[in-house]
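It is worth pausing here to work through a concrete case rather than discussing structure prediction in the abstract. The textbook approach is simple: state the sequence, then state the predicted structure, then interpret. We follow exactly that order.
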Amino acid sequence: MYTRHFAAAIVMSFGVSATAAQEALAPPEFTNTSRAAEPALIQFVQSTVDRSPLVKAASSKLVASTSYESAAARPLYNPELEFEAEDTDVELRTIGISQTLDWSGKRGARESVATAERLAVEADYQLTRRQVATELLNGLASHQTALDRTALAKERAELTEEFAQIAKRRFDAGDLQRVDFNLANLVKAEARIKLATTTSSLADAQQAISNLVPFDSRPRWPSLSTVFVAPSPFNDSESITSAMPEVRAAQSRLQAAIATVALRKREKRLDPTIGVTGGEEGGESLVGIRISVPLPLRNRFQHEVSAALAEQTQAKQVLKNTQIRANSRISNSLQRYKIAHAAWQEWQALGQENLRQKTDELRRLWGAGELSTTEFLVQMGQTVDIRDSALELRLALWQSWFEWQSASGQLDQWLGYNANGDTDA
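Step two, the predicted structure:
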């Protein structure tokens, strides 16, 4: 009789725990209208991304590329000032100025290369911001899930510890069979292992966020909303792919390679130097004009053109590969989100209700003496495992949502700021 009352208490405890877990696993809302994230989350992500060393490094690289572009727009050659003096039978004094002419338009070609490279670096900067934001969001999802799983593991450990203590007293008194006593100890050991594993996972999740937020000494991180947009395919995936920063970066690098080919071809053309000299020789005025042209005898710069053409072909293939991967990422991320969405809706419609019904049924069967202690422990353990699986499903839903938002180019809009990192008013 004592064992039966204890088991009934365990059932009631699990019932209370199930209620708490159901609150933690409150079903997310799915809407057909896009909406921004919660303000606290937007502010946290924005400040973290702005202070990220990776983003700052990408920003510095963008500043450098802008300076290189400005430098490429400047004239290629500076004038040269010449002075000559000679004291022989005839005294000579001359002064002159010479200028090499950009006869083939190298300056314009250099500027085209620099502009394309700057656009590529700008796309890289936007991609870095998006990657840091996505990593941070996934870290928050893992951390929130680890917190809930750790709380669930603590509940299980406390319940099994209490059950094992009572089982030992009943076994010493001869009121409990050894098989049930051994099972109680095994369940307790399993619960401790589960608690240690989830606690370790929680520490890993905290570290993953701390790697991105080193300036935050205490984990006061915002929780994630459970309001999601219902999955729907895009009508124009090609334009979405073209707008992806990685695709734009590859496209700009192809344009830079094309411009480099033009530059190398123009570098083969010879630029003349024209000079004007004025002075005095033997007491008489002297005026001279000098024109010099380099002779391409030792180096015709043909290999530079061949290398540039090969790099252009490489850039074309990189762009093609990037476009293929971007298209695949969009379709696959949407498919994963649909799967997670459908699974969660099924859990929302059937799983939670069935779990409550099972808890009530187990309580009734035990109260009627129709369920043994062993069967009770096994089945109640299953209910805890189901709740843990539901937490994993919620994590998969969050992660697939972030991946879909990132792959489809909607992440910046969802976070309430544009691609350059400015918060929308």
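Step three, interpretation. The two ends are 67 Å apart (CA to CA). The chain is about 70% helix and 10% strand.
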